[in-house]
From TrEMBL:
Designated name of the protein: Aldo/keto reductase
Residues at the site labelled Lowers pKa of active site Tyr: 89
Coiled coil location: none
Gene Ontology MF terms in the entry: oxidoreductase activity
Species in which this protein is naturally found: Blautia fusiformis
Domain of life of the native organism: Bacteria
One protein family per Pfam: Aldo_ket_red
Positions contributing to substrate binding: 120
Record SUPFAM superfamilies: NAD(P)-linked oxidoreductase
Signal peptide: none
Amino acid sequence: MAEVINPAIVPKVTLPSGEQVPCVGMGTFGSDRVSAEDVSAAVAGAIRSGYRMFDCAACYGNEHEIGQVFKDAFDEGVVERKDLFIMTKVWNDMHRRVEEACDKSIKDLQCDYVDMYYIHWPFPNYHAPGCDVDSRNPDSKPFSVEEFMDTYRQCEALVEKGKIRYIGISNMTIPKLEAVLPLMKIKPATCELELHVCFQQQELYDYLVEHNIQPVGYMPIGSPRRPERDICPEDVADLEVPEMQAIAKAHGVHPALIALKWAHQRGEISIPFSVHNYASNLKCVTEDPLTDEEMATIATLEKGNRLVKGQVFLWHGANDWHDLWDEDGVIVK
Ligand SMILES: NC(=O)c1ccc[n+]([C@@H]2O[C@H](COP(=O)([O-])OP(=O)(O)OC[C@H]3O[C@@H](n4cnc5c(N)ncnc54)[C@H](OP(=O)(O)O)[C@@H]3O)[C@@H](O)[C@H]2O)c1
């Protein structure tokens, strides 16, 4: 049995509402490599190890199995529903039918309501599960404020109905946020974005904090086993950077734990996925913090190492994946 970490000693992050949530949640994307059964077994172990936050998504294809694990934990009295902070996401092919998608996630996850419901990507461009990097959907379109706000309004209605507690956004850029934030009645509580030591997105991070939106960092370890379609020859292995190796050696731990300590001390929520190391990933934020000097060293490791480039979401006429990220400060159409 994995080590147990008392959830009370896990540091908390304060959401804009004032609610406190754990600074580490568990990711549940098996990266097309880990089966739904193995992911859900890890979730079962993680609950018993002290995790209270889980990052799910309809498109990860494992909500049904994870829901059974949640139900077992409730039935066995391990936790009550209110003890868990369950996050999930509407997939791109359900932007016109958000309530139906949310109802299905609630049913599959057996969770009665969702704590944080994300719009997984800010456009409805769909790709088939497990597709390769060159596949393109002829129906894909560039970002549209109207389309996004239609999806967002449906999320706002779900808050009003009590089906979700908070709205989250994901894979956004500053120009897109500038366009949509003034139109929202209920502000998003969090934004999920790719964050790891060689991809720190400091400008977007600061923008979110300034706008009272809590950053939630995905791929905090640099996703060493990400899907084939997200692996490019130019990618950097974050944990192999000499500075990370040296800091890990000084603390006598795996560099993955240094990455998670850094994320926590920077102020984000991180959502590492693990089937083998989840207990140490939660424990590491409760002990042996990085020094100011180590934090400053890691701040210098930015290498523009975006791993989820998003090629499969490109529309006809787009140049390349850079168009998805509005790098010149305007929304690319
Ligand atoms: N919003 C979005 O669009 C979006 C996109 C991508 C991901 N996400 C979310 O973010 C989560 C995390 O991303 P990710 O799973 O791609 O990457 P990640 O958490 O950076 O990396 C996971 C990998 O790191 C290994 N690992 C974890 N802890 C370790 C440790 N202490 N020592 C050594 N190896 C360790 C795991 O292997 P072991 O299993 O062997 O420990 C696993 O292969 C996902 O599961 C998903 O929930 C969201």
